Amino acid sequence: MKKHWKTKFVSTLLLIAIFFVGCKKPDLNKMAGGTWNPNFAAPIGYADFDVRDILAFKNVHDIDTFDNLTGEMELIYRGEIASFTAQSLLQLNNYNQTVNLIPTNLGLVTTPSYNGSNSSSNTSPINFPMSGGSLLNTVNLESGNLDITVNTSLKHNINLTLTFPDILIGGAPAVKIIPLNYSGSIPQISNSTINLANSTCDFTANGTGTNTLRVIIDATVNGTGQSVVGNENFDISVNLNNLSFLNATGYFGQQTIANGSDSLLLKIFSNASSGIFSLKDPRIKFTVENSFGIPVQLNITNLKSINTVTNATVNLTNSNLSNITINTPTVMGNISTTNIPQLDSTNTTNMTTLVSQTPKYVNYTINAQTNPTGNVGLLNFIEKTSKLVVKAEIQLPLDGYAYDFKLNDTLPFKFNQNLDIIESVMLRLNATNGFPIDFKIWASFTDTNNIEQFPAILFNGTTGTDILVGAPVDNTGRVTQSVNKITDITLTHDQISKLKNVKKVIIHAEAATTNAPNTDVTIFDYYRLKLKLGIQTVLKQNF
Hints:
With about 550 residues, this protein is mainly beta. The protein contains four helices and 31 strands.
């Protein structure tokens, strides 16, 4: 059976009851007479809830045993609150550079007719600019292209070999052979591409520079009898395009990265419109997982809880959240974890007020700086899959009190049954409550325009009455015994006849711990809530 806490399980019981009288004929013999017990008269259902059923909602991991010796429980809300990827720290942008040579660079002299053959070799740097002061050492590329365009006005045949000694493909330097055969028209143009997938690039130019690759240009010019004027161009454009790295080393600069403001949902308050909560020892833990081989300093700011209904906020300040040194892995592929000292009432003065105004969210801003002490000769490394992930865990030990805790939930409703023979319907809820929580419930039935079709009733009045009576506790906040209460809910014929116009059921609930705020209570793992629901139908005399 699917179980939900608060308005969910109550609204389920209501809808089951309403549909029951329209879809299933009750045993009238069992319901004849005066008083009756739902165990014997048309029982609808039975439920036995434990702490996790009531407080964990859809995720059982939202609640756990805080103290294994005593069984004291706590609510836990975990989340990955920030994640910085490798692409946010290292971008290899497209880059174009043109090497301009003149005839003398190729060993040619001015002549009206050239029929000889001459070979030359020139080495030129390709400067690859990086932002943020980054200096590349080595980069293993996952993909990318080296596009080459040769443009010359020389009227001769040229055999061109371009060697890139700092780009290794299969362990050997990348080489491109480009023939240019003069056919009577200029300029001579050639386009070619080297696939850089799985290549390794040394951006130190074999230790001679930074952010630099080299190209060796070997050219053999075979004369065609045409002239060499001396001002001919010989241009080689080198284009690095669509580069994607597997990993890289170097110095990646002092970069500030931030995720902006974000928040972590406190699901227990997700439907709350008001309330006062007082927990003795709420705690927040932050953990950082880092697979960047880069020194990082982290700051967590603007930490506060927010009630989006009332706009009430509680700001938290703790020096442990400033200038946090994040542990760095020493080997590529490893992950280092940094556990930031937890926030609790011993180091954060207003920590106990974190959830006092039933906040929907805990809000925060996170920013980080790489290489906070600058370039001190420490080699940085980064992988395509590297991440810096900040995780938060909010722990709420269930020891304290709550009152005026109001919830609202709206459920869609559709009812097309013929109930002309029904005079009234009474539901009986038999509740045995082992929790130190009082619970009131009432409901409104509205049409599509939110107009009530009849006054809010259910559970004896528009302001509600206790459907669950909180169990008594001793001076340590522990329940001493369960409490039983029987509640009758009646729908008259007039109300039943208007159900066809109802499109929404709005459930209102109000909860408080036993004797709040004068008594603190504690929730233990053995508390249980048992519910039995039965039905009695009164038929019209003349049908």
